[in-house]
């Protein structure tokens, strides 16, 4: 199977979306945007179904957000500290909240996922702030749908307008999405503090 061609990817992209988007909920460097945008670019060439790409991405996003939310709502974050990799993840969550801010309002839960690291930060902060499970679930679901449509749309638009190979269209979509996300993040974080409500591993 040649993964450098659209035919080589085929339906394999469906199998990648769920674990990658789920992983991004806890570890932001996981390239969930790239995978979903690539799905959109493949859809532009008629190789996959864009609606299924969006559905899988939105569903995985919601499940991942709920896992992080419940982890902190039930004060189970200390479980991560049992392993070296867990302590690294815990510190990463601490840093993400410090950068993205501590707001747990419903609008932030929906919109912060478009900022690098914002999805993890708001899910954890909402759990700490004891936001209602129903309210968070609805906002995470709506945010996941909007995010999935945006990412899939970026790939589809790049693929259908440039007529470049799917991987080139994917890179263009990722670049545009990253620039917009970073721009929004800079504007938002200027008004945030630099402290996080998450206790760092090893702290008293």
Residue share in β-strands: under 5%
Q: What is the molecular shape?
A: elongated
Average of per-residue pLDDT values:
74
Ranges with pLDDT <50 over ≥5 residues?
191-204
Query: From the helix content, strand content and strand pairing, which structural class follows?
Result: mainly alpha
Main β sheet profile = none
Number of domains: 1
Q: Give the % helix.
A: over 70%
Q: How many helix segments?
A: 9
Distance between the termini: 52 Å
- Order of helix and strand elements from N to C terminus: HHHHHHHHH
Using DSSP, what is the number of strands? 0
Cα-atom Rg, whole angstroms?
A: 17 Å
Summarize the structure.
With 204 residues, the chain is mainly α.
Description of the structure:
By secondary structure, the chain is mainly alpha-helical. It has one domain (9-189). The protein has 9 helices and no strands. The chain has helices spanning 6-9, 12-26, 32-44, 50-73, 84-100, 106-111, 118-128, 133-162, 166-189. Helix 2 (12-26) packs parallel to helix 4 (50-73). It is elongated, with a radius of gyration of 17 Å. The N and C termini lie far apart (52 Å). Residues 191-204 have low confidence and may be disordered.
